[in-house]
Design a protein that fits this description.
By secondary structure, the chain is an all-alpha fold.
Length: about 140
Amino acid sequence: MTDVSSHSARFAEGMVVRRSVLGDAHVERASQAATEFDRPFQNLITEAAWGTVWARPQWTKRERSIVTLALLAALGHDDEVAMHVRATANTGATREDICESFLHVAIYAGVPAANQAIRIAKRIFSEMDAEGEEKQDGC
């Protein structure tokens, strides 16, 4: 097991960004579910994805969210699409932003990939609306 005291400053920054995007509850669930086997992976994504890429100041969290959704949809990573659609409540990406992102996916990565991502987003929006998250317009 990796000793928490041995984590880098980039890991610490990554954890702050990860929590701000995905929410404390999600990060706590992921941390609690980590085992000896996958803890190195959790540490890697916290440091590399969240502490290196998402923490860069060149793009806003909204912009990163839009690009991330397009990439995940294009690659067919459905569980990650769902997680990142839900995270838009924290990043400022609107439903219209997500729609535009998936329109790009349709043209550049294929209609089936975009269609699946749209189905996922509609399901997550419905869940968010039922939970009382702020409703926004889409396209």
